[in-house]
Amino acid sequence: MEFALSPDQIAMQDSLDRTLERIAPLDRVRQIAAQDTPTAPDVRAALAELGAPAVLVPEAHGGLGLGVLDAALLAETLGRHTACAPFLGPALAALALDLCGSEGQKAVWLPRIASGEASFGVAVSEPASGARMAAGVRAENGCLSGQALFVIDFADAAAFLVADSDGGLHLVAADAPGLTRTALTTIDRTRALGELVFGNVAAERLPDGDSRAALARMRDVGRVLLAADTLGAAQKMLERAVAYAGERQQFGRVIGSFQAVKHLCAEMAAELEPARSLVWYAAYAQDALPGEATLTAAHAKAHLGEVGRFVARTATEVFGGIGITDLLGLHYAFKRIGLDRQLLGAPERARRDAAVAQGFIDA
Asked: What are the tens digits of pLDDT across the range 73-83?
């Protein structure tokens, strides 16, 4: 059996690649990343025009109604260009609303997500990756209290999708009374993460369906999309390293002619290419093979976390590991891979979840 992308999927990915090459080249990424908040309305508008925010929104609510594999292909391209635009947050919010939202909540929010009018922040880091100190959100009498760290796509969010400590899912308006928002500075300046502190904040619970199952699906899909983002960023680093090795001269020869440098580039390619199949399969499993969804998502997240770090380090070594990497923008991909590794569970956490899914250890 041949497992390959369809012509439509290839065309969709190529279209996004060309668009980002035009509107978000390295100089533009550098400009956005230097801002206090890494947001770019023009990039976000271009993604909306291409239908990127609509990929996981059902057609009945103005979306494209596509699958997780399609979303993963977009995430890979965004990672390749280290694009400064919200994608993961709105995608996971659309997923949660579709699974557990009331008809009224769906009617209000899903068309706005699909059109790109409303971005969503997603606060699920604690249940997905484990508690951090005193972080966690409690729900009582329709209100939320506590703290949520590493809220994804924090900047410019019209609302937040928040998971409480019992597995419930809630909608909170960005301007809700009692909500304190603080931007967090991370190693990755191409994406906006933040902290939410809830002081008895009124919240709208997603009332339908199994919220715990929905939260698990958000975690799994989010891990696949982060693995795809890492794949794109690492692939770009490999390509830049190979191109540099074919241009940089030392001792009267291009450095790519030296066996040691050839080995570095070959090792990166050998590690990265099988990872592509793993990401594709994990994305495919989210819709077509639900029994394998959690396991394959955990495998993809853990493996790409390791492979991405290897490629990021090795590509930097090809460039000499010094300040020239800043000039060429390698550090944006390097740091993006680093953040991808930690969000929604580091490799150690993902492996633990894989062991739980296989019955090797208790949850």
From this structure: 999 999 999 99
Q: 111 Cβ partners below 8 Å, 6+ apart? A: 57, 61, 62
Query: For residue 97, what are the domain limits?
Result: 7-117
Evaluate whether 289 touches 300 at the Cβ level (below 8 Å). no
Amino acid at 20: L
Confidence label for 100 from pLDDT (cuts 50, 70 and 90): very high
Do 224 and 348 lie in one domain? The reply is yes
Rg of the Cα trace of the chain?
20
Would you say residue 39 has pLDDT above 80? yes
- Cα 219 → chain centroid: 11
> 145: exposed, middle or buried (C-beta count within 10 Å: 0-12, 13-18, 19+)?
middle
pLDDT in tens, 43-89: 999 999 999 999 999 999 999 999 999 999 999 999 999 999 999 99
- What is the Cα–Cα distance from 225 to 215, expressed in whole angstroms? 15
The pLDDT value given to residue 323: 60
Please count the CA atoms within 13 angstroms of the CA of 213 that sit on its side-chain side. 8
Read off φ and ψ for residue 132, nearest 5 degrees. -120, 110
Last residue within a domain, chosen from 49, 83, 117: 117
Quick check: 53 and 110 in contact, CB under 8 A? no
Residues 176 and 281 grouped into a single domain: no
Looking at 186, 205, 224, the residue that finishes a domain is 205
Q: How confident is the model at residue 249 (pLDDT cuts 50, 70, 90)?
A: confident
89 shares a domain with 147: no
Closest CA relative to residue 137, chosen from 115, 101, 167, 114: 167
